[in-house]
Amino acid sequence: MLELNRFDAWMQAAGQSVGTRGLRKNFAQRFMRHTDPLTCTMTDVAMFMANDGWKPNTRAAARASLKSLFEWMILEGLRPDSPMTGIKPVRVNLGVPHPCPEDGFLRALKVADERTRLAVMLAGFAGLRRAEIAGMHGSMIGPSELRVTGKGSKQRVIPVHPDLEPLLAPYRGKDLYLFPHGDGHLTPTTIGRLVRAVLPEGFSTHSLRHRFATQVHANSHDLRAVQTLLGHASLGTTQIYVNVSNDQLTSAVNSLSGVGVEVSSI
Fold first, then answer.
1. Does residue 127 share a domain with residue 42?
2. Can you spell out the DSSP letters for 219-245?
3. Does 151 score more than 90 pLDDT?
């Protein structure tokens, strides 16, 4: 069995986030339950990825994880080559916005305990990912903003919403995690489970991130601002998060200038 803690350390040294590292290790462990990574072939990898129950996004995540694993193994001298060479990229669906409905968000705030309510608020009013929520520390809370380190160790600044301010004030500048556990903090998986338990069925922490993006865009009409707040490298990714209502589409069409004449007379 490979020492995946060494693989994890290699990814951490490259600046990969806790969430990404956990995902990579998870797929590596699942692959290693049935196949020896030291001797496996391209066909072994293909059979693992040909899981009928997987959606394209899951298959793409598996491919990226194993590609990273075998890259590390080559650098460690554990393999002379990678079996991923012949595994083609997975065509992934772009996806559609899936914001949590407002009544579901408000109900979650009412039924959640204090800890879970804070997690819901950080997702819904700051657009944080569950890994970013899990690792939120008092040192990241400024006078009026959150300083967040997201995927790829990219840092961004998010203004604190007035409704979120009183919940964050007790932690501001203090050397402690907002969601402590032992010597560290809760895992992203635990945060996701807590939040999902108070949301309507079919919605998650990420749905609250979509809710944040949709509402910011509806109020500001500034997709670039939404991109910056979410920490996306591409506007194309941000567009997947922003839901446009039928009323907004109708308003956009009705905003066109009329021709000022009877159509029948043209």
1. no
2. HH--HHHHHHHHT-S-HHHHHHH----
3. no
Instruction: Report helix, strand or coil for 105.
Output: helix
Are residues 142 and 28 part of one domain?
no
pLDDT, average across residues 88-102: 84
The CATH number covering residue 32 comes to: 1.10.150.130
pLDDT greater at residue 134 or residue 154: 134
pLDDT at 113: 96
Q: Are 164 and 121 in contact (CB under 8 A)?
A: yes
In a domain, 17, yes or no: yes
Q: Could you give the residue numbers annotated as active site?
A: 129, 151, 206, 209, 232, 241
Kindly give, in sequence order, each residue whose CB lies less than 8 Å from that of residue 172, ignoring residues fewer than 6 positions away.
138, 141, 142, 143
Does 110 share its domain with 170? yes
Residue from 204, 228, 205, 200 nearest 216 by CA: 228
What does the alpha-carbon distance between residue 220 and residue 227 come to, in Å, rounded to a whole number? 12
Residues 156 and 246 in one domain: yes
Tens-digit pLDDT profile for residues 192-238: 999 999 999 999 999 999 999 999 998 888 889 989 999 888 888 88
Lowest-confidence segment of 73-82, 102-111, 210-219, 252-261 by average pLDDT: 252-261
Domain contains 177: yes
Task: Please report whether residue 240 resides in a domain.
Answer: yes
Contact (CB, 8 A) for 2 and 32: yes
pLDDT at 31: 96
Residue with the bigger pLDDT between 101 and 253: it is 101
Three-state secondary-structure class, residue 155: strand
> Which structural domain, as residue segments, surrounds residue 143?
102-250
Which residues does 205 contact at the CB level (< 8 Å), separation at least 6? 119, 123, 129, 130, 133, 191, 192, 195, 196
